[in-house]
């Protein structure tokens, strides 16, 4: 029993990142916690499907703590970005993801790291779940050389293996995602591509071109509409003749999912992934979710919706609170444990912000680099004819 | 007189040269594939991809629906994920539907990602005026695409150009806009033994002196290289020796070759099919002015261009919308003040 406690203690220490031997178990021993529980999840609305995702989801203690940690990290990272933006340390565009964490966490929990993912500009959450560190994300936002794109890209242009950004042009990422899926099919590697877009982008023509080709060629592509009810300041009712985004794929089957419940998102994405991998072709998922911030940092977010609406979502549907309450009421973890995770995350985010504010900006020598890939150096014209700059790959 | 393993020079049309280039690159690298409207079962709207679908099948030669923005984006995504697509626009006029994918998704991505994400893609198709196809089907896009950092823009003239440059473009790890010319597809040119080899490539970014001369430099790209050579032949009879430079690549432009020529001849005429304002010739003028060759000019640079109008339909009007050989001859003489 003692050995087992030590093993579990060490495991938990690794997860929380603290030194072995520190006080991890608080008022109760591990043997008291429920290791696994089954939860009822909302039924998904189906389009052109006989069966949908299951109505129950299993959650282990470890998974729960991991999902909590992921979502809380994204939440705190985005709030830190808000702070830095207001201090004018982050400039330009900054589209925050707080409120939508269950989408990114749930999707990542159901696909493989070798699968592919592409999204639009509200991308910081996915950049994190796809493996980029908080440090590199914040430093990219502050435009420093330690940023994931060396400060050259900014908020909307962050990349990682099997993660294709971060795309600034509304809807353009959808054909790209279908193309990544084509590459998966072509290479026969059983991988798929998760292609995300918003309720605003759902009306872009290029989406329908992508749906057509993806269905025609049975591309392994999960098209996911993150419906947060507003495209900038235009509500879905004012933008779309049909707000049933899960049906907009027409001949492509669709599922409408509660995007505030990480378990619902996970089960639905698992279902969708199985559909794609079995060669049935693409599938559309609509995640009903909500953003607490305005469209971007230059939008207070209250001219087109009420503060009451925002507050109601916070109190009744917050994805992080929902998961926490589920775990607490099923005795899967303790309040203190969650507190410790919160403290640890705050510390990590603070350290990352420290780095992001102290790391130097990219050197001027880097100005013209990376125009081309794998290319001999070339000369680049500067602002005047005597300014001959150099570009290396 | 064929020796073992050697080929004699052959006469090959531009169409066949392009076809050979794609065939060889498809065979060489299984990541290469071709997509576009009618490229497979129709053998290509202009028969450039004739026989490729029969040889390589549905996986490598893909007929797309009429969805330029969609399939160009799909091609770019495939390139990001490790393939090497050749994306055909039936004509570059239709590329305007997809231009956001070419510029914002393809051209800028390597820079925005600080080198993390490459986009090895070729966008190819006929560019510029054809015959009788009127305003919406006759625009030259050389200047538009060559304006943008992150793209390479290639414009071949003859069969060797077509084959060598297309092979280089496909092997390049960056987005290349490859501007063909429909009127040249059926024109036969001699191809050297070297050019017939499967490893024959022409470097992107290097111009070629097609004809040496001492009195004046003519710089051109695509079909008008031929016009310049024809004009040079006529002028030679009057004792005026023109040096004709075939740009081959619009971006990056080989300004050094132009400058070296101008420092020899002291006179420069640019010839293009596109519109004059903000065009290829305008760029050459600016570059020459900013560089070492300016002091060698004995007269301002002259631009010969398409007329600044949408392309009309009636033959007589169409003929007068584009540079003719007599326009080049006239401009040369004006520039030389003879």
UniProtKB/TrEMBL annotation, chain A:
Dehydrogenase E1 component domain ranges (all copies): 70-364
Cofactors named for this entry: thiamine diphosphate; Mg(2+)
UniProt EC number: 1.2.4.1
GO biological process, one term: pyruvate decarboxylation to acetyl-CoA
Catalytic function, reaction form: N(6)-[(R)-lipoyl]-L-lysyl-[protein] + pyruvate + H(+) = N(6)-[(R)-S(8)-acetyldihydrolipoyl]-L-lysyl-[protein] + CO2
Name of the protein this chain belongs to: Pyruvate dehydrogenase E1 component subunit alpha
InterPro entries listed in its UniProt record: DH_E1 (IPR001017), PDH_E1_Alpha_Subunit (IPR050642), Pyrv_DH_E1_asu_subgrp-y (IPR017597), THDP-binding (IPR029061)
Task of the protein: The pyruvate dehydrogenase complex catalyzes the overall conversion of pyruvate to acetyl-CoA and CO(2), and thereby links the glycolytic pathway to the tricarboxylic cycle.
Keyword Phosphoprotein: yes
GO molecular function terms attached to this record: metal ion binding; pyruvate dehydrogenase (acetyl-transferring) activity
Enzymatic class: oxidoreductase
Tagged with keyword Secreted: no
Primary location group: mitochondrion
From TrEMBL, chain B:
UniProt-listed CDD domains: TPP_PYR_E1-PDHc-beta_like (cd07036)
Domain of life, source organism: Eukaryota
Reaction catalysis annotation: N(6)-[(R)-lipoyl]-L-lysyl-[protein] + pyruvate + H(+) = N(6)-[(R)-S(8)-acetyldihydrolipoyl]-L-lysyl-[protein] + CO2
Enzyme Commission number: 1.2.4.1
Keywords assigned: Carbohydrate metabolism, Glucose metabolism, Metal-binding, Mitochondrion, Oxidoreductase, Potassium, Pyruvate, Thiamine pyrophosphate, Transit peptide
Keyword Heme in annotation: no
InterPro entries: PDHB_mito-type, THDP-binding, Transketo_C/PFOR_II, Transketolase-like_Pyr-bd, Transketolase_C
Molecular function terms from GO: metal ion binding; pyruvate dehydrogenase (acetyl-transferring) activity
Domain Transketolase-like pyrimidine-binding: 12-187
Annotated compartments: Mitochondrion
Signal sequence residues: none
One of the GO biological process terms: glucose metabolic process
SMART domains: Transket_pyr
Enzyme class: oxidoreductase
Names of the cofactor(s): thiamine diphosphate
Recorded GO CC terms: mitochondrion; pyruvate dehydrogenase complex
Any one Pfam family match given in the protein's UniProt record, by short name: Transketolase_C
Quaternary state and interactors: Heterotetramer of two PDHA1 and two PDHB subunits. The heterotetramer interacts with DLAT, and is part of the multimeric pyruvate dehydrogenase complex that contains multiple copies of pyruvate dehydrogenase (E1), dihydrolipoamide acetyltransferase (DLAT, E2) and lipoamide dehydrogenase (DLD, E3). These subunits are bound to an inner core composed of about 48 DLAT and 12 PDHX molecules. Interacts with DLAT.
PANTHER family, A to Z: DEHYDROGENASE RELATED (PTHR11624), PYRUVATE DEHYDROGENASE E1 COMPONENT SUBUNIT BETA, MITOCHONDRIAL (PTHR11624:SF96)
Name used for this protein in its record: Pyruvate dehydrogenase E1 component subunit beta
Gene that this polypeptide is encoded by: PDHB
